[in-house]
Amino acid sequence: MPSAARSQQRAAYEELQTFSGVLNHIRTNYPDSVSYSELVAAAIRGVLRSLDPHSYYVSRADETKRNALERGELYTVGIALEDVEGAPTVLTVAPRSPAAKGGVLPGDRIVLVNDTAIAGLDIPTVELRLAGEKGSKVRLGVERGPRLDPDPFSVTLKRNPFEIRSVSIVRMVDSITGYIRLEEFMGKATDEMHDGLGKLRGWHAKRIILDLRSNPGGEVVSAVDIAGEFLQKNSVVFRTRGRKRDTDTTYITRHDGDFRDIPLVVLIDERSASAAEAVAASLQDHDRALLIGRRSFGKALMQTDFLLPSGDYIHLTVGHVISPSGRVIQRRYQGISYEQYLSFAGKSGAAQDTTTIYKTDAGRAVRGGGGIAPDIVVPLAAPLPVWWSAAADSGFDDAVSDSVAQTLAATPAARAAWLTAEDDWRAKLLPPFLTRVRTRLGVPAATDSLLDRRLARILAARTAEVRWGPEGREEFLIRNDRTIRVAVEQFPRLRELLTPSAATPAPKPGPN
User: Which helix (H) or strand (E) holds 12?
Assistant: First the structure.
């Protein structure tokens, strides 16, 4: 054996001896009772945390509960979590889920589950604590706003089944513009997307908006197939690179996509992650779509589960996802603290990561730096205050919207008029809602013009759903979404914007 190898082997052996020594000192000297299994599990979690932010350990007991959840024997509340600066933070909220009904919002931090602090627990463990029997309740302690001066509140959610569809909305925005919203790349996402695109074609859509906002990602196969709907045969969707040769894979389309020639705009934001980022990057690199919105989350790693002899397993990163132009989508995590890494979510990464310029197929300049930057930026809307969630949990929004809905005619003409009646929304919905909040919650509920506009729009969407059903709500949301309006405005100059010389200034700031 070469001396270098022997030296490395001795070093590894000595390190293991050091670890064993620590365990023995704890066993013989620590005043409280702890088990070896607890210590080893904690050590494994620490080792994985030191590697990257997305590798984690799952105990056999947690895996048993996770399997029960997947079999439909347990139910949860409809939120996906991400660790942000050590706090379990809501990444996405499933539409019409208990969490959505309770007013939980992306960006909220979960600090208590059933009055028990969850600080230090990894995300999979916290997500499992949210699961339980059908009809049972879970009480969450939540923080919103700045970490140093948060607004705390609590919400009680009832665990009930809710429909999870990968494709949640398929509609025409106007006579020639189709819109399709993809919530995640899981389950039957590929089939649902293909069917949804087929509907848009049947409705004579001449151009399409694909909405990947708040899409947390999902399965690699679904990502490749869905990207392939818009690409030619043998187009590279993305590549993966890792230590082992079998991780190095180039994912390409297997046939010509049925929608490879249709004008396309893709919407992304700071909560578009993983497979959603990979698909957006691929369509951007191939000049196949214009990206509009905000920089994506910056998480794109290949991960695999490895079973341990104990029956536990680890979810380990084995590779990075690379876009067709060569961009590493995952934001930097080596050489910086865990907190620094998490602070880059939805933002450009470390300065040195943004200096390299990559080229799309047509020669447009794109940069790395963590996540995917859109071609056109649409600013954030006014944030919702903490008292909004307390009001939603108490049903104040439903009470006001339901009351106003009963005063509206159920006719198509009344529905069409409500879609753009912003003055009516504010006059009929805001005053009774704010009065109810201020008197029953005992808070000042101060607002400004931007917040008034957003609250009125949320309440008006609920009113549309009560009066004209889910389709009325969908039509309302699409008609009053600023990012969608910006997308529609870009179609006439799409070819120009996808050429190397095109300038793509951001729209003026305003509510989304």
Answer: helix 3-29
Helix ranges (DSSP H) in 147-219? 189-202
* Domain-embedded: residue 449: yes
Contact 167, 191 (CB under 8 A): no
Domain count, the chain: 3
> 349 Cβ partners below 8 Å, 6+ apart?
298, 331, 332, 368, 369, 370, 371
**Which residues in 173-190 are b (16+ Cβ under 10 Å) and which e?**
beeebbbbbbbbbeeebb
Strand order in the sheet with 167-172: 167-172, 177-182, 207-211, 264-268, 290-293, 376-377
Q: Are 456 and 384 in contact (CB under 8 A)?
A: no
Q: Containing domain of residue 291, as a range?
A: 167-310+317-377+491-497
Q: How far is CA 511 from CA 90, 173, 210, 294, 480, in A?
A: 22, 19, 21, 14, 10
pLDDT tens for 200-253 read: 999 999 999 999 998 989 899 999 999 999 999 999 999 999 988 888 999 999
Q: What is the pTM of this model?
A: 0.81
Structural domain includes residue 8 = no
45-68 confidence digits (pLDDT tens): 888 878 887 888 888 888 888 788
Instruction: Verify that 368 and 298 share a domain, yes or no.
Output: yes
How many Å apart are CA 430 and CA 451, to the nearest integer?
Answer: 11
CA distances from 494 to 128, 274, 480, 499, 512 (A): 45, 26, 22, 9, 21
Residues 298 and 201 in one domain: yes
- What the block records as the tokens of 240 is 């993966």
Residues 302, 280 contacting (CB under 8 angstroms): no
The answer to whether residue 19 sits within a structural domain is: no
Residue 203 CA, chain-centre distance (Å), reads: 29
Site of tokens 């590493």:
328
Strand-pairing partners, residue 137, are 158
- Give the Cα separation of 395 and 401 in Å (integer): 10
Judgement on whether residues 325 and 197 belong to the same structural domain of the protein: yes
| Range 34-45 burial, b when 16+ CB lie within 10 A, else e | eeeeebeeeebb
Q: CA-CA distance, 96 to 102, in Å (whole number)?
A: 10
Is the residue at 42 inside a domain?
A: no
